[in-house]
Design brief:
Ubiquitin-like (UB roll); 5-stranded mixed beta sheet; 6-stranded mixed beta sheet; 14 strands; 21% strand; 364 residues; alpha/beta; Rossmann fold
Length: 364
């Protein structure tokens, strides 16, 4: 039986099986088998799809990918956000390759990628969908662009992303599995597990060929989350929901959609409505912060900040500058909200805040 047929067979069995306490163990085993088969399918497709135009080198401080159905206005939005010149047309599949652009905001250079529109079944290869969606797996943020007339496409896109191993707006489950040669399975948790039984945990681990391990669970995980914790290829990527073309609808319709999607951004790329607000929200969602460097004996450069991720340490900055800064590190001096007083000494593990001024002192 072909791999895709086996996947469909298990998916159908899961759908047909009523979920209750008696069947949860069986469903858990099926989901583990399904996850392994999907992972195998993704590995096969990644080897066989090297299409021209679908591999772009990452640049800038972060990478954002625009994902949506054809003709939702992604090309127009890319031109609004960046210096790119993407083709625009009132017909489907205008973009046939990836168009990159750079959005400059608050000192950060953010790469925006406009990928070809996807269709239902993209994750299964329709319309070169896997190849297209694989770009999103390497993104720091995914903007899901929707036509305001078709908000229901959001759930289709989320399913397609999940099918290629992306977990939109989810946190990686706090599960640790340390395999051993002997000793069997020892399962412990720091929280009460209400969504999964120890029997199901053992069955899932056995499906993955794990028969001896120390398992520590710190979250009240579901079966799906526990399976995801075993899959190192899963990508936990923040997403932002954006509904475009609001200039084409009346206020009553717009308010109805807003009530159903209160967490979405509502814009018009064509009329440039709320585009600046989208830039700001994109920057905030990426959780970027600005660090200003202060060379010895000189003032801090407040015009050219170093852009790093939130919760980064002095070590992260030192590594970004040059590996010798870590090797020869003596101490750092920090001015800003992350310290109690200006010029406070700090070590490599000191966590920096947005707007901090940093001076790294190395051994001579």
């Amino acid at each position: 039986m072909a791999l895709e047929d086996r996947i469909k067979q298990i998916e159908d069995e899961i759908k047909k099986t009523p979920y209750n306490k008696a069947t949860s163990h069986h469903i858990g085993k099926l989901k583990a088998k399904l996850s392994k088969l999907k992972e195998e399918s993704l590995q096969r497709s990644s080897k066989g799809t090297k299409g021209k135009g679908f591999h772009v080198k990452k640049s800038g401080d972060s990478t954002v990918v625009l994902v949506g159905f054809p003709s939702v206005g992604k090309s127009t939005l890319l031109n609004d956000l960046t210096n790119a010149e993407s083709k625009i047309g009132e017909y489907e599949f205008t973009t046939l390759e990836i168009i990159p652009g750079i959005m400059e905001y608050e000192g950060a250079k953010i790469q925006i990628l406009d990928i070809p529109g996807i269709i239902t079944g993209a994750s299964k290869g329709k319309g070169r969908g896997r190849e297209i969606l694989s770009v999103a797996r390497n993104a720091d943020l995914i903007l899901i662009i929707l036509d305001v007339f078709n908000p229901q496409h959001f759930h289709v896109i989320i399913d397609e992303l999940k099918n290629i191993g992306i977990r939109p707006n989810e946190e990686r489950p706090d599960v640790t599995v340390k395999q051993k040669k002997i000793g069997g399975l020892k399962i412990s948790s720091t929280v009460e597990l209400t969504n999964i039984t120890e029997k199901t945990i053992r069955s899932v681990l056995n499906e993955y060929g794990i028969h001896s391990a120390d398992v520590l669970i710190r979250d009240d995980v579901t079966v799906d989350q526990f399976i995801d914790s075993l899959d190192v290829s899963c990508k936990y990527t923040p997403t932002l929901k954006v509904l475009n073309k609001i200039d084409l609808v009346d206020e009553e319709y717009l308010n109805e959609i807003k009530s159903k999607m209160p967490d979405a951004m509502f814009i018009s790329a064509n009329k440039q409505i709320n585009v600046e607000e989208l830039k700001k929200e994109t920057f905030n969602k990426l959780e970027l912060i600005r660090i200003y460097l202060k060379p010895q004996g000189r003032k801090a450069d407040l015009d050219e900040p170093l852009i790093i991720r939130k919760n980064s340490t002095v070590r992260d900055v030192a590594n970004k500058l040059h590996r010798d800064f870590v090797r020869n590190f003596r101490h750092a001096k920090v001015w800003g909200s992350s310290v109690k007083f200006g010029g406070q000494k700090a070590g490599l593990d000191h966590v920096l805040n947005d707007g901090d001024i940093l001076r790294i002192i190395v051994k001579k």
